[in-house]
Structure formats: structure tokens, C-alpha cells
Amino acid sequence: MNLDRMANTQDPPQSAASVLPARPQFNALLQEYSERVYNHAYRMLGNREDAEEATMDVFLKIHHGLADFRGDAQLSTWIWRITTNVCLSRRTKRREPTVSMEVENVEEVIADLDPTSNPEEVFMKEETREELARSIAELPGQEAAAITLFYLEGMKYEEIAAILGVPMGTVGTAVHRGRERLRKKMYAERVRI
Amino acid sequence: MKCEDFRALVQSALDVAVDVALSGELLDHAEACLSCKSYYESSLALHRALHRLPRVSPSAGLVTSLNRITQLDFVPVKLSWGPEIRLAVEMLIPVTLPYIAQAFSLDLLQHALEMLMLPMGLTLFGIAVLKPRFLGGPEYRIAPQQS
Fold this sequence. Notes:
Largest sheet of chain B: 2 strands, antiparallel
Largest interface: A-B, 60 and 53 residues
Mean pLDDT of chain A: 77
Oligomer: heterodimer
Radius of gyration of chain B: 32 Å
Structural class of chain A: mainly alpha
Distance between the termini of chain B: 73 Å
Number of strands of chain B: 2
Number of helices of chain A: 9
């Protein structure tokens, strides 16, 4: 996002007093969350450019809303909810195809084709790890969000449920389905190679 | 043990631990069922790989831009309906022209204007007013802070 271009808009600036939160508080949030929010966005969106724009968008919303934050939820929950919603919104606009679950019984295919294969070896190569990271961005939105919060942020289902606004059981289903889609995609592609 | 029960138990175990070792009934089933053994091994490998995914660092440009947020004033677009309403009124003028013509009994002019202006005016009205509302657009504009 080009801040210089945005800063050159001719609109008259409004009074900052009503919308600006206390700067030390915002700066502290920036310190603590900027890299984490960026990583979350990167995993959910799959590329740096979108992740940077999403991160800017998230912190603009935090900056704008911090003064009105009433503490109904934990501050961290509020921040992650904004982050997830921004990323989901961007993904909806892109409308990219998601990872399908068409490949059934991939473990049987692996065993049949290469009985000596070690599943752990698949993820030894850096390119495979990068492919795995990209594949997260191709999961359906809720699954991508749940997988990212669970693995990247190490959150428990209860915290993820509060962020996504869904029951804990739904989070569990999303993580399981997301993991299964990733497993099938990663191993099916190895088998095809 | 059924295969589906085995797989559900493996998934549940992965929810609470990075490393999951099979034992007891689960181990017996995995030794008897190659498909479930493969499922367990590939699920565990993926689970570990997800835990180990490296974090990425934001670019210096992003860090600079983020730090500049506190130096900028916000003009929420939600509050600035003025220009859009003005534009919409300007675009509605051609739509109203046929009725003005009708008022002066200029039938030919009226029909011509109706055929051309009404759809064009409505289209432009839609683009100007509805698109930013429903198809997205920036939610904030940032203006330089006044010293």
C-alpha cells in the first residue's frame, strides 16, 4: 500500500482528537503484533503483497477503533478477529479455487506405489514446506483461519472459537478438515510426481 | 476397532500434542491395517511440518508504513457522503430532462432523451453510488497531519 499516495489526498483532515488512540498504546500493539499479524495474513493469503496490504488495513482499523474499544472481549481476541476478517474479506474478493478433497484414500495410493517411502521425508525439502505454506492459503476461509491460528499462533480451540465467533466444535471440524485437505493435497502431488 | 474410529482418535490426539505415539489398541490396529498406518504416519508428518513452518519477516517498507500510521489523521470514508451525493445529483439531472421536455410538450426531444439518457443516467448513478457501498473500496483515506 502506498502511504505517500494516500497521504496526498486533498480531503481536509478531521480533528484527530476524536479518532486517535493514545499513541503509546498503539505503538506497543504495533511492536507486539505487527510481525504476528503479517505472518497470519501471509499464511492466509499466500503472498507477501496481499499480506502487506492486509497488515496495513488491520492496523488502520486497530488505530481507528482502539479509542472506542470497550473491552467486551480481550484485546488480543479483538485484534485477531480484525485480522481474520480482513484476510477473509480479501480472500472472498479474490474468489480463488480451494483445495479439493477429491483424492480419496491417498495413504493407500502411497503404500501401493512406494512401500519404502517415509511420509516424514516429504516435508524435508524446503520447496515442499513452501508448497505446504501456499496450500494453507488455498484452503476454504474458515479452515485456513483455524489452521493458521492453531499452528502459527499456538492457540487453543476455545480462543479460536472466540475469534471466529463459532462454537468450539466447529473449530475442531475446521482444523481436522483443513489438515485432511492439506494431507491429501501434499501426498497426492508427491504420488503424481 | 473400525478404521474411522482409529482416524478420529488420531485426529483428536494431534489436537493436543506435537508428537503422537501409538499404543495399545491403536498400535494393534495400525499393525493390522496398512491404510490406517499410512494415514497415521502421513498425518503426523504433516502435523509436525505445520508446527515447524518458518515465520516470515515483514519488509522494511511495511514496518516504515506501519510506524507512520500514528503520524496520520484519518478521514473515514463512511463519514464522507457529500461528494457522492453531489455526484449522484449531477447524474440524475439527465434523467429528469425527459420530464422537463414533456412539460414543454416537446415530444420528439422527449423520446430521444428517454432512450439515451435514462439508461445512461441510471448506470452512472449505480456506478457512482452503489459500487463503493456494496462492491468494496477503501474504508479510510489518510490525510496528512496538519502542523
